[in-house]
Design goal:
Four Helix Bundle (Hemerythrin (Met), subunit A), single chain, two-stranded antiparallel sheet, Arc Repressor Mutant, subunit A, elongated, 2 domains, mainly alpha
Length: 237
Amino acid sequence: MKNRSEQLVCELGRKIVTGEFKQGEILPKVEDLGEIYNVSRTVVRESFKSLSTLGLVRSNQRAGTQVLPRSEWQWWNLELINWVLEDEKNRDFLLHLTEVRMGLEPMAAALAAQRATEQDLINIKDAFNRLEQSIGDEKAWANADYDFHESILRASYNDLIINTVRTLRKALVISREKTLKAAMDYPESPFDTPTNEVLERHRSIYEAVMARDEKLAHDTMIELILRVKRILEKIYS
């Protein structure tokens, strides 16, 4: 159960993320927000502090509390990510997320091909088998897809890459669900169904890692994520 300060943070945070409070706008005064939400000034001030920690606002005694540009937001915060995912207008977020993947996962695949232990290779094989078995079930595929990628990430033994992608797990699963639905109308599929096409792309990554071919693992991961990016661009065009 959230206290009044936490509730107000969520209320104001969502309004900032959805653009109801626009970047550069000055939020209502502490007294006014207290009356609007029937809370004390202390609760409002505590909420402002929390929003400031998230990089959403900056308070100034003379100018008031101003909404900051999106570039200042603490995007790795799970609460902020949840607010963004709730907002259908934040179409750019999944595209930006895919670009983050582009920067991290090809390197992780190359590192996995180099560093994976025998147990890691067994885990990657098991994850691929689960992915193969999930064809036809969108929810199961989205989760199995994430698990396959995470098995490769773990085998990279790069803690920064691993922790960054885990932080974004919810957003990544939603991204996979969206791209899988869109793939039904995507014209590039040379296989029987879009899911089979995507499975074969994952198989190429799997085989490259198992063969310890760093360059091939890197390049096939880039090809896979580029395809995801093209699908998202099609969805939001």
